[in-house]
Write a structure and sequence with these properties.
- The complex is a heterodimer of chains A (about 1000) and B (about 260).
- Chain A has 33 helices and 22 strands.
- Chain A is an alpha+beta fold and about 1000 residues long.
- Chain A folds into four domains: about 200 residues, no CATH class; about 180 residues, no CATH class; about 220 residues, no CATH class; about 220 residues, no CATH class.
- A six-stranded mixed barrel of chain A has the order 2-3-9-6-8-7, surrounded by five helices. Chain A has a six-stranded mixed barrel with strand order 14-15-20-17-19-18.
- In chain A, strand 18 and strand 19 form a beta hairpin.
- Chain B has one domain: P-loop containing nucleotide triphosphate hydrolases (Rossmann fold, 3-Layer(aba) Sandwich).
- Chain B contains nine helices and ten strands.
- In chain B, strand 9 and strand 10 form a beta hairpin.
- The chains are: A alpha+beta (about 1000), B alpha/beta (about 260).
- Chains A and B meet through helix 21, helix 30 and helix 33 of A and helix 3, strand 6 and helix 4 of B.
Chain lengths: ~1000, ~260
């Protein structure tokens, strides 16, 4: 009987049923798609990581204390490949080598990666130039070079200018590079693939012959430093460049520096045949399927532990680049996941609200029928089950179709979008997973259950009086009066207590526990909860301004459409409680995207200033990111991490650069007042030039000592500029002295404070913040001579003026260089100094551009999420309008009878819908924008940077447009039937 | 309910006589109307003709399903006949489009329903104002003044700011009457105006309607089941199975008979 009842209900209330099913389809579809997005992004993230740190999970190397720096792959690989979870293992030689090109100015160093192309499939490689173009022009068959010919053949099939091909984990559409042919021998000369940046620096092209000089890794005795004088056997051999390429995940470095050759050719020519410096292992990708990055990393570690066990007594070191990077990046992922969950929750709440409203209306309409059923003997449980069955049937259809739609959206839109962004990093973006489907079913089911509860209870509580005497059915009965007299526990008081307790519970228990134990899912839950509370709290707080917004919009309407406005005003302002829930949902739906988009807009607007204040100067060159640091070797002495004097001189003389200022390597020491009252850890640095004129004007903020301090610190021995916070800590002012602990034993230097700064961008931490002082981050700026004296041990004699102490060079481009030229200069400096000398070149303009580009991508992503939630809001608005119109049939009928034309009714209901949704959206936008500003201003206050005004011009307007569209469509569709029907037809249905 | 005072043939003659009268405001000729009940067409009116003069107060009576409400709706321009002609003030209603008909109702017809159908979010005064807003002929000040005047006319001057939920049934119906008069219509249509009211309140409402008819010359056409309320009319048209079966032209006698 229940089924018959449900079936007839569906037939009688087609529109409502279809609406509920549609909302569920969109809601569940959104959830499935969002869930898949998280999954795809997780893979995307793993792909990014693979590109940065190498497309392998474990790197085995010999420690430098091992007697033999080489491993024997034919002994080790069978052992490790037998370990469950290991997919493949490949031997490599990986060393920094000297390269001769035949043109002495171009000779330099490069990373050599000798790999076995038959088994080493890590990463992807794109051929930029394989010489085929030149060969075609010359009508030559690539000098009889079979390998090159193969490469050309592959290249011919690719689009002109596009990446030719790749090897490794390439997608099916790509043509794999025949690496064995490219690296193979022709006429006794083996082939090499030179990576783009190295090819540019060395000036080599396909066809050129390069000479590589290799020295085996240096070993040392345990407990002893490597001998500087120990002679290293160097072997030289020649390779012919077969192609220039770019890589991702092949070398284990993010750039395109290095030379790839075959392991066989390198082993033979360098006298280490059948040996390897390292073995790279690739694990089963399923290890990374866990949602928790830490869990994934731990799963990978378990495999590594088994690998270690399998190796027994082998003396090897382990490095896990990908698992470690995945784990380290977990915070970013948690934020992303929380954001997605937030959107999902908001979306499904709107669906839940809609279903609840619709089912409640159904129950209200059927009250008399249900009362009759009760008279006939139906139990309350039967009535409850009737409603539950109706919701269950709707749920089964809606959720089922929602999963299909979600899968389609994921496969056709989201996966493509992410794959496009990820490029070559991932070729196997996952489709919807079973866990994602189950989650959608579970959450959708829960939402339905919650939505159906109140209507089902209402149905179950139907009084028989509704059939006998409806007029008095809703009044108080004797039972009700008796219940009212009973004393009951007031749960509201307990709930208030719980609300008050939330804050201390979080502060004293939840946060400390989560942070102490570092449980990622708890941290994620707390983060998500905080974000949810922030949004919900802000929405609730701002709900109060919905009325002023409504009044404002009504005023506008009164001017533009006075007759409709007369009716709209009275309905909107007097419809108490009717639209509160859905208005609140719209407010919340609008708050989150507005908050995020405003944050992004503020970030974009303030990026330039923030970066200028942070970087201090247009260009910043730091030394060194040495190539040697990539191999597992002992840490370098401090001097080796600073600029070599000749490199510094060459750089400063570069024609592309204008004025420069060198900064000494930060020297960590203790500062004190000399009388034992106060001390602090500080970082001391020094400058060799006038900062004014080189740093951006706004990057210099001296609060005491004036501009002269910048000159005095250069000219006066023992002069120092300190931060405002440090000055406050010591109660020091200009003219006072501070004692700094020197580099020698019992070595102190007194410095005279000549200036107190709140900011010296790019030079160090000069701030008013005490936390910087307590954290030992406060910087003291000296002149170079004073600095040398401070770091030098007096016992060893006077400071050596030639000791390299410069770690950073701040520079401006020469006056002749414009904005475009600056980017070119940065690239040029990177090629010339980055590769050969390991210098790191940062450009403020470039970082500004990067942040802006990221913000643009972020905006696009937000727009997609907002569109999805807005699509659901449309259903919410429709539901409210539909129910509202249904409940006001008498009013509509009367207005029509009175002589109100159909277009007037349309205007009235469209007006009502617009006022309601727009006011709620504007309220949400206000809340979101204010939250965004609060966040930025507080961050700015923390970082002592100003905030530039900014408004999001994409997401918020799009959201407003979608809401206007939603109300327009909803009101038009919902009133369509009534507008066409005669007054009597409407009134007859009452 | 009063019994038909004449056989159907006599009633037809009486109706024919009425058509001959001058200054006819509402003229109905050979109206037919059927409703589809499932797949079956059920006739509601079968060749009804009627002429209502300006200033008449006419009552339509008959058992359920006799066609009285259908006739009233056609007279009020709320429904259209399947066949036949209807003119109001010499204007052919049947050929009018929906928009034009709505305009006609707005200007010339006021409605009072059994369930009052007041706008719940509007005060009594605003309810009366609503048709004036729709017509758009008066300024805001004039609208308010007229609404107050009409409320005073129905004895509710002191209830102008009250919402329907704050008024009794009788008061609500009087607001509905005031609203029906808002645009000074020539015709007032009442469908079971006193059906939801007790006798005392019903008489009060009918007193108001009769006063309007007598003092302002409004043509009133109303349906009722209650012979006591029918007694207020100048004459009563009795319907049975979709045809006029009698016209009782002496309401005073009918009232005396009932009382």
């Amino acid at each position: 009987m229940i089924l018959t009842y449900v079936r007839r209900n569906f037939r009688r209330r087609k529109v409502r049923t279809i609406l509920m099913i549609l909302a569920l389809i969109v809601g569940v579809g959104t959830l499935v798609a969002l869930n898949a997005t998280v999954d795809s992004y997780r893979r995307f993230y793993a792909g990014t990581v693979a590109g940065e740190v190498g497309d392998f999970d474990l790197v085995l190397t010999r420690p430098d204390t091992a007697p033999n720096p080489f491993m024997v792959p034919r002994e080790i690989i069978p052992l490790v490949e037998a370990v469950p979870g290991v997919r493949s293992a490949a031997p490599r030689l990986h060393a920094v080598v000297s390269v001769r090109t035949g043109v002495s100015e171009r000779d330099g160093e490069a990373a050599l990666v000798a790999l076995d192309p038959a088994v080493d499939t890590a990463g992807t490689l794109e051929i930029v130039d394989d010489g085929s173009q030149q060969a075609d022009e010359e009508g030559d068959s690539a000098e009889g070079d079979g390998a090159q010919g193969d490469g050309a053949e592959a290249g011919d099939e690719a689009a002109p200018g596009a990446a030719r091909s790749r090897f490794g984990r390439s997608s099916d559409e790509e043509i794999p590079v025949d690496m064995e042919a490219l690296l193979g021998e022709v006429d006794g000369v083996p082939g090499a693939v030179v990576l783009q940046q190295t090819a540019d620096v060395l000036g080599v092209a396909p066809g050129d012959v390069i000479e590589i000089q290799y020295a085996p890794p240096q070993t040392r005795l345990p407990g002893q430093a490597p001998s500087a004088s120990a002679a290293r056997r160097r072997t030289t051999a020649r390779w012919r460049v077969r192609a220039v390429a770019t890589q991702r995940g092949v070398t284990g470095e993010s750039g395109n520096e290095g030379i790839l050759v075959s392991l066989a050719s390198a082993g033979e020519r360098f006298g280490v045949p059948g040996l390897a410096e390292r073995i790279v292992l690739d694990y089963d990708p399923a290890l990374y399927d866990a949602r928790d990055p830490q869990k994934s990393a731990f799963a990978a570690r378990e495999v590594t532990l088994l690998v270690r066990e399998s190796l027994g007594a082998e003396d090897v070191e382990f490095r896990m680049p990908r698992p470690r990077a995945v784990m380290d990046g977990a915070n970013a992922f948690i934020f992303f996941q929380s954001l997605i969950s937030m959107y999902g929750l908001l979306s499904l709440s709107v669906v839940g609200m809609l279903i609840r409203t619709m089912i409640l209306t159904n129950v209200q309409e059927q009250t008399r029928d249900m009362a009759v059923l009760r008279i006939l003997g139906a139990s309350r449980r039967f009535l409850f089950n009737t409603v539950a069955a109706e919701v269950a049937a709707i749920g089964a259809i809606g959720i089922g179709l929602g999963i299909v739609v979600g899968q389609w959206v994921n496969n056709k839109i989201i996966v493509r979008f992410i794959a496009q962004r990820a490029g070559d990093m991932i070729a196997d973006v996952p489709l919807v997973t079973m866990s994602g489907v189950l989650l959608a079913v579970a959450v959708g089911g829960l939402v339905l259950a919650i939505s159906a509860w109140a209507p089902a209870r209402k149905a179950a509580n139907t009084k028989v009086t509704h059939a006998i005497n409806p007029g008095v059915a809703d009044g108080l009965g004797l039972d009700d009066l008796a219940k009212m007299r009973e004393r009951r526990t007031d749960l509201r008081i307990s709930r208030s207590g719980l609300v008050v307790l939330t804050y201390p519970l979080l502060i004293f228990f939840a946060f400390p526990l989560a942070f102490d134990f570092g449980v990622l899912w708890v941290l994620a839950a707390l983060f998500f909860g905080a974000l949810l509370a922030l949004i919900v709290g802000a929405a609730l707080l701002f709900f109060v301004i919905i009325l002023p917004f409504e009044r404002l919009l009504l005023r506008v309407q009164a001017i533009t459409a006075p007759r409709a406005g007369y009716f709209v005003r009275r309905t909107v302002l007097r419809g108490k409680g009717r639209n509160t829930l859905i208005s609140l949902m719209i407010v919340m739906s609008a708050t989150l995207p507005s908050f995020l988009s405003t944050t992004l807009a503020l970030e974009v607007a303030n990026t330039e200033n923030d970066r200028r204040l942070d970087g201090g100067a247009p260009l910043r060159v730091t030394a060194p990111v040495s190539l040697q640091q990539t191999s597992a070797g002992p840490p370098q002495p401090v001097e080796q991490r600073n600029f070599k004097p000749e490199v510094l001189a060459e750089l400063r003389a570069d024609a592309g650069l204008g004025p420069t200022v060198a900064l000494a390597a930060p020297f960590r020491t203790q500062a004190s007042d000399g009388v034992g009252l106060r001390d602090a850890s500080v970082r001391v640095t020094a400058t060799d030039g006038q900062l004014r004129g080189l740093l951006y004007d706004e990057a210099i903020e001296i609060i005491e000592g004036g501009e002269a301090a910048l000159t005095r610190v250069l000219d006066e021995p023992g002069a120092a500029i300190i931060g405002a916070g440090l000055a406050d800590h010591f109660g020091a002012s200009v003219g006072k002295t501070l004692r700094l602990e020197g580099g020698g034993l019992d070595h102190d230097e007194d410095v005279l404070v000549v200036g107190i700064a709140k900011r010296l961008g790019g030079v160090g931490t000069f701030t008013a913040k005490k936390t910087a002082v307590w954290g030992g981050d406060s910087t003291v700026l000296l002149g170079m001579a004073t600095y040398r004296r401070l770091i030098n041990d007096p016992v060893t004699g006077p400071p050596d003026p030639n000791t390299p102490i410069v770690r950073t060079l701040l520079a401006t481009p020469s006056e002749a260089i414009d904005e475009e030229g600056e980017a070119e200069l940065t690239r040029d400096l990177r090629l010339r100094y980055g590769t050969q000398h390991g210098l790191n070149i940062d450009s403020t303009a470039e970082s500004i551009a990067t942040v802006r580009e990221e913000a643009r991508t972020g905006q696009m992503f937000l727009l997609i999420l907002t569109a999805l939630t807005s699509a659901l809001a449309v259903f919410g608005v429709f539901a409210v309008i539909y129910v509202s119109i249904y409940g006001r049939r008498a009013e509509i009928g009367m207005l029509k009878a009175m002589g109100a034309p159909g277009r007037h009714l349309l205007k009235v209901f469209v007006g009502e819908a617009m006022v309601m949704t727009l006011a709620a959206t504007l309220t949400g936008v206000s809340a979101g924008v204010l939250l965004g500003y609060m966040l930025r201003v507080s961050e700015g206050f923390q970082n002592e940077v100003p905030t530039a005004f900014a408004v999001d011009r994409i997401v918020v307007p799009a959201m407003l447009a979608l809401m206007i569209l939603a109300s327009l469509i909803s009101a038009t569709v919902a009133t369509h039937g009534y507008r066409r029907r005669r007054a009597v037809e409407i009134l007859r249905t009452l | 309910m009063s019994q038909p005072s004449a056989p159907p043939a006599a009633a037809k003659d009486a109706a024919q006589d009425a058509v001959e009268e001058v200054d006819v405001l509402i003229r109905i000729e050979n109206i037919h109307k059927s409703y589809l009940m499932g797949k079956e067409a059920v006739p509601a009116l079968r060749g009804v003709s009627l002429a209502i003069e300006r200033g008449d107060m006419v009552c339509l009576m008959g058992p359920s399903g006799s066609g009285k409400t259908t006739l009233l709706n056609i007279v009020g321009g709320l429904d259209e006949p399947g066949r036949g002609h209807v003119t109001i003030d010499e204007e052919d209603v049947v050929s009018m489009g929906e928009e034009k008909l709505a305009r006609l109702r707005l200007e010339k017809i006021g409605f009072v329903f059994q369930t009052f159908n007041l706008l719940n979010n509007f005060t009594a005064e605003e309810n009366v104002e609503a048709p004036m807003v729709l017509l758009g002929a008066l300024s805001k000040r004039d609208r308010k003044a007229r609404a107050k005047e009409l409320l005073a006319l129905v004895g509710l001057a002191d209830r102008a700011e009250h919402f329907p939920s704050e008024l009794s049934g009788g008061q609500q119906q009087r607001v509905a009457i005031a609203r029906a008069l808002a645009n000074d219509p020539a015709i007032v249509i009442g469908d079971e105006m006193t059906g939801d009211l007790d006798s005392k309140t019903g008489f009060e409402v009918m007193d108001v309607v009769r006063t309007l008819n007598q003092e302002q010359g409004k043509t009133v056409v109303y349906v009722t089941h209650d012979p006591r309320m029918a007694a207020y009319a100048d004459y009563t048209i009795h319907l049975l199975d979709g045809v006029i079966v009698a016209r009782d032209e002496d309401p005073q006698r009918a009232l005396e008979r009932v009382l």
